[in-house]
Amino acid sequence: MEQLKEQAGQDDEARDAQRQQAEAQKQALLRQHLTDGARKRLNTVKMSKPDVGEQVEQQIVALARSGRIRDKIDEDKMKQLLKEITPDSKSFDIKRR
């Protein structure tokens, strides 16, 4: 029984180590491909809308790994990415009868 607990603990540690390594690689890619302004904007978005921030990070990492990012992403390009990902939820119609 104790051996199973020890083995489960080691598996958890290995998963945590893999998760930390993947996060470190993602942060390195973001540092490499984002300007300071774009990184600040992304951090601001992550504070207010974590799910949108994660989507943007995943998209940037995927673009970087596929080699489709030639220059650094500046703040204007970050704004475009955010507009593409976030739907325009502020528009709605009120119909009165």
List the helices and strands and how they pair.
Layout: H1 2-33, H2 36-48, H3 50-66, H4 75-85
Helix pairs in contact: 1-3, 2-3, 2-4
What is the CATH homologous superfamily assignment? Answer: PDCD5, DNA-binding domain
> What does the overall shape look like?
flat
| pLDDT < 50 runs, ≥5 residues | none
The secondary structure category is mainly alpha
Number of strands: 0
Please write the string of helix (H) and strand (E) elements: HHHH
What do the pLDDT scores average to? 86
Overview of this protein structure:
The protein is mainly alpha-helical and 97 residues long. It has helices at 2-33, 36-48, 50-66, 75-85. α1 (2-33) crosses α3 (50-66). The model has no long low-confidence stretch (mean pLDDT 86).
Task: Summarize this structure briefly.
The chain is 75% helix and 0% strand. By secondary structure, it is mainly α.
Any descriptors?
97 residues, mainly alpha, Helicase, Ruva Protein, domain 3, 0% strand, flat
